Automatic annotation (TrEMBL):
Membrane topology field: Multi-pass membrane protein
Record Gene3D superfamilies: MFS general substrate transporter like domains (1.20.1250.20)
Domain of life from the UniProt record: Bacteria
UniProt name for this protein: MFS transporter
InterPro entries: MFS (IPR011701), MFS_trans_sf (IPR036259), Sugar_transport-like (IPR052528)
Signal peptide (UniProt feature, chain positions): none
Pfam families: MFS_1
Alphabetically ordered keywords of this record: Membrane, Transmembrane, Transmembrane helix
Listed PANTHER family: INTEGRAL MEMBRANE TRANSPORT PROTEIN-RELATED, MAJOR FACILITATOR SUPERFAMILY (MFS) PROFILE DOMAIN-CONTAINING PROTEIN
Location relative to the cell: Cell membrane
Amino acid sequence: MHHKTKTGFPAILHNLRQSGKNRVHPNEKVHKRGHGQLDAQAKLLLFVNLLFITAGALSGTFVNVYLWKVKSQFAPIAWFTFATYLASALTFWLAGAWVKRFNKMNVLRAGMAVSALFYLLVLMLGTKVVAYSALLGLVQGMANGFFWLSFNVVYFEITERDNRDRFNGWAGLLASGGGMLAPWISGYLISRMTDVRGYTLIFTISLVLFVVGVVISFFLKKRQSQGDYAWSFAIHSLREDTNWRWAFGALAGQGLREGVFGFVIGLLVYIATKSEMTLGNYWLITSAVGLGSYYIVGKWLKPHYRKWGMFCGALVMSAVVSLFFWKVSYVTLLIFGVAVSLAYPLFSVPIISTVFDLIGTNEESAKNRVEYVVLREFGLDAGRLTGILIFLVVTSFSTSPSTLNWLILLIGTGPLIAWFCMKRLFSRVSPPPASEKN
């Protein structure tokens, strides 16, 4: 019997369905892909990740600018960011039971849906947005918590030690690509229209991308976790497991920097230039550099080079903060952004891969992957919240350039703190070079 060959869009849908059906359970040891390669499900997850990040970058890049234009103060923006990370941590913990007992793909879709709701609320509130900045932060934190909890669990299930660095390299590369084009497009549109029309348009585009992401996510195979959710697992692990205490410290060091730098740098660029278009150009340039760096790191950084690769990245990221003591201008901010974009993949790929290798140390730990992903998020958010609280306390007393410079320098040492903690784990967790396996 002859079967009619599917072509065009129907063929794409057919292949996506088949990729989900043919995927083996994450605990099985049968693999059809080549050594270190990514299968169809991993590539599909990368695409969903790209849509989520691009939609967020398109509108989210300018939320802080929008808040600043309504009320030129750091505090509302810092509280918005603080509420975002607080809600994210709580959502990770509470939604962990949902992910463990039911379909985790519905959690991922909920993250996209709540993200769409967040941008609708920003648009509806208009100039009242500052008064509700903390509440909006809680909504965005819920969205991020839902999406990244599900994403990280599925990521763990469809990758292994031999292809985890490759996946993270591609994830970073695609994120840099989305982060490169989306803010530039937003800045261009806003600068060519009135603020209301420009922001309305980019929020609408984001909504469409979130909807497309939800549709594509249905082609990811449903994965059912087994067992009961352990609510106090994080506390027990930190008390009993030395490796996870060091990992938690490293993640907190990473988060210490991310919490503050995540909103301060873009805001400083806008304050220095008063132009959304220039801010878009800034992210275009720095993300383009990051894209190239992620490609190189994902392709060439081997597991046994993680320790010193991460050290080089952490050192550059911490040292380049000294530029702020010279002069805060668009030029110095651009030099800073390019240097960080070059170094960040060296820093982030080793820590992400090693922590997930730690989760997959053995079959027993892999069964608790949901709880470990929650613990990982707790570490990051502990650092983020600490950094933002330090920022809020210090800026409540003084916002002078000198004070801000020393504050940024202090918080900017987070990557070195992370490396100091992680270096104890690389030899214990990372796989040895291929020559040592025989």
